[in-house]
Amino acid sequence: MSGLADAVVGLSKFILRRHEGFGYFAETPIHRIVHPGYRPRSISHPQKQHARALRFGYLGRLHPSKGLELLLRSLIDHVGKSWELWIAGNGSPKYETQLREACTLPNVRYMGFVGPEEFLANVDVLVVPSVWDEPFGMVVIEAYTQGVPVIASCRGGLPEIVENGKTGFLFDPNGSPSLAEILGRLIAAPAILNDMQETVLERAKEFSLQRMVDNYIGVYREVTAAVRSDLCRGERPSIKTG
Q: Which of 83, 137, 157, 237 is the most exposed place for a label (fewest CB within 10 A)?
């Protein structure tokens, strides 16, 4: 079926390159990246990190592929320091029990399902510790729209949207810098996050719904221009069906 397309769009470079690597869309003339757009229901005004404990947040599905066990192990390395972890999301009861048993520290809080705007208004930095290749990572954009920096693993499409040292930090689940190193650095100097908030809010504008629509319209125009060119040369239109 990939041979029938005139254009292919990937929601990230990672996902498009992965398909190309399997030999798909080899004859497709137009290859483009269009990141998904997001419009929050509300936008909070981020407050500077202050004297309370640094509050890490996790927002998403509770599943082994999401790296929660790695996050908990990395925070256990910093027992006795000033931090909290708020975990929002649902998973299987069995897996949630395993997580609770793996880390019994009182500063880890399980909140169940919470809306993204409500949750992100109350954390200082979001952690996306995925150990599988995330195709994109919409939760990162949700965080940006609320002025929240992101710590993310360098897996899948996440490195395309997290700028290391500018909108957050990237770590290698199997190497350096490790998640524990980054968490420790922020616990010791949480004010680092204050300088990122304005940059994060600016970065969020790049993922607006309007920009996504404009980018798709650009792809459609490329395809129709190619069809007109074929017609002018007296060739059959290149648009394929099937």
A: 237
